[in-house]
Write a structure and sequence with these properties.
By secondary structure, the protein is α+β, with helices and mostly antiparallel strands. About 45% of the residues lie in helices and about 15% in strands. It has 9 helices and 6 strands. Strands 1-3-2 form a 3-stranded antiparallel beta sheet. Helix 1 packs across helix 3, helix 5 packs across helix 7 and helix 5 crosses helix 9. The longest helix has 17 residues.
Length: about 210
């Protein structure tokens, strides 16, 4: 396939998909190497930027997606008659930070780190697509494991999790403070996702005593 035709094909596939698509899948369809498709995607990224286009191509790990340019978000929201959603709540950001840094994790582990029952927030973040189940822990009850999603990377403006701020050992005295600082950095990035939170309460039992599967 000629270079210009390959550029157009990748653009057409991503436009028609709307959702993130793995570069390896596009490569398979086009009969090309995955790295060739990633290189084409980067060319499209640069072309959109140089032409001041209202379209952007974002990469999230090994997935690609077309989206609108952030500077035109206000107009897009108005055109779609949607209200600008509020910032992520503090509890949602705390859960996201725990999952992002320590994934894959169980809900019991999240509760243990935060010191409160996080079941509602975990459910809301899963419903919003920011975290997702990724298997089960090989332990009694086989509790669900969670990881961050491609939407999390896009929301935070990151390509990979390697871009997360470095987190020190939480066992030190400065650990909790540094985790809070990391949460604040995530908050600056994640202002556009709406998460409504119910009040959270102190656990009535330790994470190890939770019913199986939670």
């Amino acid at each position: 396939m000629e270079h210009d035709e390959l550029l157009a094909a990748v653009e057409a596939i991503l436009f028609a998909s709307g959702d993130p698509m793995k570069a390896s899948r596009i490569a398979q369809v086009l009969g090309e190497e995955t790295q060739t498709v990633i290189g084409i995607a980067r060319e499209l990224q640069e072309a959109y930027l140089e032409s001041a286009s209202g379209i952007r191509l974002v990469q999230m790990n090994d997935s690609l997606q077309l989206c609108s340019a952030p500077e035109y978000a206000t107009y897009v929201v108005r055109a779609l008659e949607q209200r600008k959603p509020p910032k992520l709540s503090q509890s949602a950001l705390e859960v996201l930070a725990v999952v992002a840094y320590f994934q894959p994790v169980t809900r019991a582990y999240i509760d243990q780190v935060r010191g409160v029952d996080s079941s509602y927030t975990v459910g809301m973040l899963t419903e919003r697509g920011l975290i997702e189940p990724c298997g089960r822990l090989e332990a009694p009850g086989r509790p669900t494991l969670y990881q961050t999603s491609a939407l999390f990377l896009r929301t935070m403006g990151m390509v990979t999790l390697d871009e997360l701020p470095v987190l020190p050992d939480l066992a030190t005295n400065e650990g909790a403070e540094k985790l809070q600082a990391a949460i604040e950095q995530l908050q600056n990035r994640g202002e556009q996702i709406a998460i409504e939170e119910a009040p959270e309460v102190e656990p009535t039992h330790t994470p190890e005593e939770k019913p199986a599967g939670e």
